[in-house]
Amino acid sequence: MIEVLLSSPLLTIQDTGRPGWRHLGVPRCGMMDELALRQGNLLLGNDEHAAGLEITSAPVLLRFLQDSAIVLMGADMQASILDQDHKNTRLQGLLTGFVYQLAAGECLRLHAAKTPGQRALLMVRGGCDVPVVLGSRSTDLMSSFGGLNGQALRAGDKIPIGQASHTPIHLKTGVRQHSWNHKLRVLTGPDFTKFDQHSRHALFEKSWMVTAQSNRMGLRLQGDSLQLNESSDKPSTRLLSIGVLPGLIQVPPDGQPILLAADAQTTGGYPAIASIISTDLWQLAYMTNGTRVRFAEVSLAEAHGLARHQQQQMDRLRDALRLRRSPA
Amino acid sequence: MSIPDPAISFVSEHGILLEFVASDCLVIDPVFQQRLCQLARLLRDHSHTGPLLCDIVTAPGSLLLVLHDGRTARRLLRHAETLWRASAQKTIDTNVVSIPVIYGGEFGPDLEQAALMCGMDSQRFAAQHAQGTYFVQSLGFMPGFAYLGGLDPALHLKRKDTPSARVPAGSVAIGGSNTGIYPSESPGGWHIIGRTSLTLFDPRAEQPCLLQPGDTVKFVAVTEHQS
């Protein structure tokens, strides 16, 4: 068990999400940086899809009620390991991408985020063992199911830890957290050609600022106003909703794009100008109020190639960690 | 019925959007929409296409096919075309779901206003709503929220300018040319005309949603006592 001594807003249990239910209106949810979750899990000998904690802000204080091994990924939140009374620090400046071991009773403190809003991830050997709902342990905050009672974690909550596999962990090996650059590669979307020339140009030539009205459902961007071609007989918005996915960039009538994220609903009626390729979706975890974002167009073939490359990198990591497994 | 060629576009490299109607089209033919829902089911169940698919989202006049690997798009579309043509001859069996509704009063706080806007009294409005045969065009907005088509044009209502902060679960409502039921409590901009005691969405149930794309829906007016 992990006991939450001090929680922060939007501290949630997430795994690789809940695909396969969009036809019933169920969003995907899951860790915003799914890549980092999978890397951390592999390092711990967990199933890649095991659930961890998504930490959106600090300070957070957790007590481990059993001997545990952990990996931190994502943004650096100045983590340290403290004793049972969280008075004395045993280890500070924990690095992302390395395994640390805690004795039963020891505490983990995430002190402060360098850039508030950029997320950190905490994976624990055995994974967070909350009930599987619709194929996933991810917390759906909008509909209040999954995770621990469908809610963000609060002080006093106790998170069950799963049975660790026999796969050994890699105390000396680390994984590299992908570094974010806020440059998102996109495919033009179904409604791209309905936008006027200025808007089609601006999407790629201008930078876009993430506003405070952003959350796990969507990031609202601010910049040039994107407008549809002027045509008196065409409606300014889609009259019928279409199925939508995380990564899609929708443009409501005010011209300010909304970038759909993990918790996005399954249908939407705003024109879809472009979509972020799946390879770059993890970067949304590190885009916060004030972040400047740029978009670059890639072809469908490039997008497929990049997705494949990313999968191969994960496969290589899995193989490399397996090779280093010491004989029993 | 003629088979329209869908416009095909990519919504992410793994998502293919098939649009069967022009974007300025407003009302979808119920029979056509049911065929789309049927195609979605066939694709999901077929041994050649099911394993390629992660998700299929039915929307009015369109399908979003989400693939595990976008590079299999061509193969999937070939199968989809075959299934679509083969299904043209088949009759569509739809599941019929009856929904008991208490119209008006505390359960339908907007009924009187809605009736007024449509130029009738609330009894007639409720009766006309209960008379219709509806079909599930799509689910969206929140888990288990079904957009029902087939609403009598006399009952069409523009959405509220200011959404209600709290719409209780089970609320039966009208928004634009659709009627629907809120599965969970949420904010909402539709006009609330009644409430059902049925559970629309339960994530822990084996069948999490009462309503599935393509289902036929009938409303049955009941009194508080009967529900």
Strand order of the biggest β-sheet of chain B: 7-6-13-5-12-9-10
**Category by helix and strand content of chain B:** alpha+beta
Helix content class of chain A: 10-25%
Instruction: Give the largest interface.
Output: A-B, 49 and 49 residues
State the distance separating the first and last CA atoms of chain B: 41 Å
Unreliable runs of chain A, pLDDT <50, ≥5 residues? none
Describe this structure as you would to a colleague.
The complex is a heterodimer of chains A (328) and B (227). Chain A has three helices and 20 strands. Chain A has 328 residues and is of the alpha+beta class. Chain A folds into two domains: 158 residues, no CATH class; 115 residues, Beta Barrel (Cyclophilin). In chain A, the strands form four sheets. Chain A has a seven-stranded mixed barrel with strand order 12-19-16-17-14-13-20. In chain A, strand 13 and strand 14 form a beta hairpin. By secondary structure, chain B is of the alpha+beta class. Chain B is 21% helix and 30% strand. Chain B is built from four helices and 13 strands. In chain B, strand 3 and strand 4 form a beta hairpin. The radius of gyration of chain B is 19 Å and the shape is elongated. The mean pLDDT of chain B is 91. At the A-B interface, strand 15, strand 18, strand 19 and helix 3 of A face strand 1, strand 2, strand 3 and strand 4 of B.
Which key features would you list for this structure?
heterodimer, A: 328 residues, alpha+beta, Cyclophilin, 7-stranded mixed barrel, 3 helices, 13% helix, B: 227 residues, Gyrase A, domain 2, 7-stranded mixed sheet, 4-stranded antiparallel sheet, 4 helices, 21% helix, elongated
Itemize the secondary structure elements and their pairings.
The complex is a heterodimer of chains A (328) and B (227).
Chain A: E1 2-6, E2 12-14, H1 34-44, E3 52-55, E4 60-64, E5 68-74, E6 79-82, E7 89-92, E8 99-102, E9 107-110, E10 120-124, E11 158-159, E12 183-188, H2 197-205, E13 208-210, E14 218-222, E15 242-243, E16 248-250, E17 258-260, E18 267-268, E19 272-276, E20 292-297, H3 300-323
Parallel strand pairs in A: 12-20
Antiparallel strand pairs in A: 1-4, 1-11, 2-3, 3-10, 4-9, 5-8, 5-10, 6-7, 6-9, 12-19, 13-14, 13-20, 14-17, 15-18, 16-17, 16-19
Chain B: E1 7-10, E2 15-19, H1 30-45, E3 53-59, E4 62-67, H2 73-87, E5 96-103, H3 111-117, H4 122-131, E6 133-139, E7 146-149, E8 164-167, E9 171-175, E10 178-181, E11 186-188, E12 191-195, E13 216-221
Parallel strand pairs in B: 5-13
Antiparallel strand pairs in B: 1-2, 2-4, 3-4, 5-12, 6-7, 6-13, 8-11, 9-10, 9-12
Helix pairs in contact in B: 1-2, 3-4
